[in-house]
Write a structure and sequence with these properties.
Elements (H helix, E strand, L loop, with lengths): L2 H61 L4 H22 L8 H24 L9 H11 L1
């Protein structure tokens, strides 16, 4: 993983994890143990899915920069289908509070996206690759 990708991942995961802890406390206060469990599961789902997306895109960047958009869209599609499958599979489960789970997932998704956007804007990632051009000039000048 590139250092900029790791910095962006940390910049998104840390605030999301902290807000997830707050969500667990809020779930505990409003819905008891089931609310805390639902919020904890929501936190784990968001952190796992979004972290996986960043790791996949970072890995694909090493292979082919032209495939980054496709990898991002494909990872989004896979996450969407898996979350939909989880919702359907756990529809009647009463071990945790589904409202706490749902609100936690929504809130943490918003926090992750905002934090990742902020980390990306502040990463100072070079978007021009000047190394090949300098090598071409050296060859022409020699």
């Amino acid at each position: 993983m590139h250092s900029n990708d790791a910095r962006i991942l940390r910049g998104a995961a840390i605030p999301t994890g902290l807000v997830g802890l707050v969500a667990i406390i809020v779930g505990l206060l409003f819905a008891g143990g089931k609310g805390a469990l639902g919020s904890a599961l929501g936190t784990v789902v968001v952190l796992a899915f979004f972290t996986l997306g960043v790791v996949v895109v970072s890995y694909v960047t090493k292979i082919s920069e032209q495939m980054v958009l496709m990898a991002g869209l494909l990872s989004f599609l896979v996450k969407f289908v898996v979350v939909l499958g989880l919702v359907v599979a756990f529809k009647g489960v009463t071990i945790w509070d589904s409202r706490a789970f749902g609100w936690t997932v929504i809130a943490l998704t918003i926090v992750w996206l905002a934090a990742e956007t902020n980390a990306t804007l502040n990463a100072k990632t070079p978007y021009v690759n000047s190394a090949p051009r300098a090598q071409e000039q050296d060859k022409q000048g020699a």
